[in-house]
Fold this sequence. Notes:
The protein is an alpha+beta fold. Helices cover 23% and strands 42% of the residues.
Amino acid sequence: MTKKINHIGIAVKSLESALPLYRDVMGMAFEGTEEVAEQKVRVAFLAVGESRIELLEPTSEDSPVAKFLEKNGEGVHHLAYQVDNLDAVLADLAAQGVRLIDEKPRRGAHGTRIAFLHPKATGGVLTELCEV
Ligand code: CMX
């Protein structure tokens, strides 16, 4: 089912403040930024081998990332696993009683299709599935 870790999401207050550490100090390849309006975030991707770090900055006060920052401060926000057939995987998980946030895929960064599982169903780890 899961192919690899596509990315690790890290919530930050400001992309501009967080980027220099990853890009300049740690030397990760910066792949650019993108606003994902539907998720109310602006994201920056940095390549780490075949995976990525996704820095997430909220674009509004009711963004899920703004709520996370308010409650926890900056830190690891979610893990994203890559799958081949997201619709089939979601149907399978639902049939096994896993609590989903998204019953149908929605649009993520770079035109990917994504869906989140509820952290209550995954031992406190917000889990994203993505199909590239
Ligand atoms: N990791 C782990 N637990 C989390 C979490 C996270 N990132 N975000 C929220 N939770 C926990 C909360 O701590 C809370 O737990 P308790 O009930 O024990 O206090 C519980 O989930 C519910 O959280 P809440 O603050 O009461 O409710 P929210 O309205 O914030 O909803 C969630 C939480 C997970 C449903 C919502 O944040 C969501 O839908 N997230 C998925 C979408 C998302 O994060 N998009 C941004 C990423 C964009 C991208 O990668 O493209």
